[in-house]
Amino acid sequence: MLKNQPQPDWPEPIVRVQSLSENCIDSIPERYIKPSTDRPSIRSSNFDDANIPIIDLGGLFGADQRVSDSILRQISEACKEWGFFQVTNHGVSPDLMDKARETWRQFFHMPMEVKQQYANSPKTYEGYGSRLGIEKGAILDWSDYYFLHYLPLPLKDYNKWPASPPSCRKVFDEYGRELVKLCGRLMKALSINLGLDEKILQNGFGGEDIGACLRVNFYPKCPRPELTLGLSSHSDPGGMTMLLPDDQVPGLQVRKCDNWITVKPARHAFIVNIGDQIQVLSNAIYKSVEHRVIVNSDKERVSLAFFYNPKSDIPIEPIKELVTPEKPSLYPAMTFDEYRLFIRMRGPRGKSQVESLKSPR
Ligand code: OGA
Ligand code: NI
């Protein structure tokens, strides 16, 4: 934390979107109505059938070099073309994935008094929350969430994880362990695809001393889904995100040029995306991509976003092997702590934040 800075708090009383949803019959409060340019389009389009790539990871780094190389190529293509892809055969048990999602769904269905014990503040964002950013009068998103730290160990605090449902801590402990392993393999794949030794990207994150946190998103039903968003357009500030989407209800949209592609989740797949810190480390060979979430009038949606981040107090800048006279460094060094502070004051804003980092030239 920066010293001598006033500690922010929420600028207005917090309203739980879930309570609003239970009380709104056919309208939504003005605070949630987006300007017309940001609203989801309800017209069907030529892109309705498009989807992000689905990559089968079975055989990645296995005995058959040709299979492994083919998977690496698919990952490389997906990182460059989309910044987003789904992975299947990733080694995490489908049962654990379902358990994790359903345990968190149960949390959001606990009585409000129980959830309020974990009400968060913008000092750390840990706990039960309903907004990002502290700008007074901001237009808000149609969602509640729960945010917690898994790594580094000194930040992992069970008191800030829900005590109920009773299985929550145990299930998420195991889920976190599996996801850290999977992210480690993907980091190796990205490093090789960047033409580097397999450990270099991970080393750029601080080696084993990485950070990891979870944001569980709860998108309640919304009587006017055409006027609002569950989560406004943003790129993820961290390193790499592993999203476990709802198994029944779609909602995530990824920006492709000027279109929004609605992701069709494959069964028991994770949705992987590149965050701003990999954009910086790769000197923009890989770019973080804007995405947002739409809501609907008849089904709630739950998703688990697991963020795999660099160690938070080391300088993050383009990897030196990727900086050449032809491709000079695009970004000055900044720690992830500094970057996150900057994001957290302002809330989701497309890609303006990582773009604003660019060195003046
Ligand atoms: C996020 C996010 C997408 C979703 O939490 O950063 O982009 O589908 N979530 O909930
Ligand atoms: Ni995101």
Mean pLDDT, as a whole number?
A: 94
| Beta strand count | 14
Which of globular, elongated, flat, extended, rod-shaped describes the shape? Answer: globular
Heteromolecules bound? N-oxalylglycine, nickel (II) ion
Topology as H/E string? HEHEHHEEHHEEEEEEHEEEEHH
- CATH top level? Mainly Beta
Low-confidence region ranges: none
Describe this structure in words.
By secondary structure, the protein is an alpha+beta fold. The protein has a single domain (31-356), classed as B-lactam Antibiotic, Isopenicillin N Synthase, Chain (Jelly Rolls), CATH 2.60.120.330. Helix content is 27%, strand content 19%. It is built from 9 helices and 14 strands. The chain has helices at 17-23, 65-81, 94-108, 112-116, 168-193, 200-204, 276-281, 336-346, 352-355; strands spanning 54-56, 84-88, 127-129, 144-151, 211-219, 231-234, 240-244, 252-256, 259-262, 270-274, 291-293, 301-309, 315-316, 334-335. The protein has an 8-stranded mixed beta sheet. The protein has a 4-stranded antiparallel beta sheet with strand order 6-11-8-9, with no helix packed on it. Helix 2 (65-81) packs across helix 5 (168-193) and helix 3 (94-108) packs across helix 5 (168-193). The protein is globular, with a radius of gyration of 20 Å. The model has no long low-confidence stretch (mean pLDDT 94). The chain binds N-oxalylglycine and nickel (II) ion. Residues 234, 236, 241, 291, 305 line the site of nickel (II) ion (NI). Nickel (II) ion binds at residues 234, 236, 241, 291, 305.
